[in-house]
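Entry 14. Ran structure prediction on the chain below.
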Amino acid sequence: MDVQGNKLSDAMVLPRRPKLTIEQQVEHLKNKGVAFTLCTEEQAASFLAYSTFFFKVKAFDKDYEINPKTGKYLNLDFAYLMELSTLDMHLRRLILHATLDLEHYLKVMLIREISENPDEDGYEIVDRFFSVYPEVKASISAKSENSMCCDLIRKLEKEGYAVWNLIEVLSFGDLVMLCEVYDQNTGGKNEDLFRCLFAVRCLRNAAAHNNCLLNSMRAPYTRKIKPSMFLNHFASTIPGIKATSREKKMSNPVIHDFVGLLFVYDKIVTSPRTREHFADELHQLFDERMVKRKEYFQKNEVLLSSYSFVIKAINQLYPLE
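Output, structure tokens:
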């Protein structure tokens, strides 16, 4: 039955895939052409049992071509999947750290601008925001029963919300919408910047939910996007990138959104020490950890070109001293 209760035809029902033991998972990969040259089958089984799980690590096979005649992977060793899985974990942690910084300094920027605006009392913007997004107010009220900030929400529902306390109970996405509403009401000077933040929100949510990111380097992409003209313009200023390469890489949702994160972090985070720490993390991951086993990926042009594009964007905004 479908969600409306209609009976599905037999042609629409896919057979359930059988559960596989760890040993059967290894055998399945072998049958698909995955080699176990750089790690043993026993090491692979241990990795699948204690470090990750089959569905998660197999997701990275999307970065590799399949021989259309044999149906088997080309130039894929299980060690490559292990390495991509580990690098993906490091990238997600970097993204979450960066977006925590970004969320804080986005609040700092908003409150600073409102504090210096004689036409805004801090309450009118809240009324305007709730009138545009009434579902956000309802969502906050729902948190008053069971959340870490339930006491604050109950207090504010009695006293009334001001922007400086509202921001403490908003999600990242709702905070971006609040900033956009304020910006639109004050001339829209940061319109392009806030549009980029919606791309960052997608990346942040994916990282927060432990979704794989580095398995999306090869087209066609599951998620379709319309690249930001603002970010495309920034990408056009990066030395050593041809227009055709820029267009191709900026159509990749993960690369596009990560470039967006790099760009808005540079514009919004004002603390020199915080920026320096982020730059150190970026270069430690991309200059050191990601190339630790670079020989694994010498035959994968998609991964090599994606890395080359992103590292050039990093060096443009966060050059080594």
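The mean pLDDT is 92. Will compare against last week's run tomorrow.
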